[in-house]
């Protein structure tokens, strides 16, 4: 599978995320490449669990956001879309404040599926916080129907 001719800018990708859960949680895309995507998320009251640590669900939301965006960048968006089939996460270290940074890297880009690994690290210490893997289905979009005369 070949990469689309050009990648959107970081600003374009952040605009895609407006009015989404990612924006609500403070996620932002910071770097985009041919087979990877990097984003960050604050560890604060929006992403804490009751004990004051980063909520595992927030880590999974960051992983799914990065994996999903990275996947759709690998297809012709006028003809195909990518949807999540499965995601898993191993939570390795607690974080109370600052930012976490996730890097999604392609493990497999096929015609009908993609597999992405997302490693989430604490921005200040570089400690590995979470490792996630998402499997995406590549689906064909319905063909546009010609206008009726």
From TrEMBL:
Keywords assigned: Hydrolase
Coiled-coil intervals, chain numbering: none
Highest taxon, organism lineage: Bacteria
Classification via InterPro entries: HotDog_dom_sf, PAAI_dom, Thioestr_dom
Record-annotated Thioesterase domain positions: 51-125
Pfam families the UniProt entry points to: 4HBT
Matching SUPFAM superfamilies: Thioesterase/thiol ester dehydrase-isomerase (SSF54637)
Gene3D superfamilies referenced in this protein's UniProt entry, alphabetically: Hotdog Thioesterase (3.10.129.10)
Keyword Ribonucleoprotein: no
Similarity comment: Belongs to the thioesterase PaaI family.
PANTHER family, per the entry: 1,4-DIHYDROXY-2-NAPHTHOYL-COA THIOESTERASE 1
Name of the protein in question: Hotdog fold thioesterase
Organism: Hymenobacter koreensis
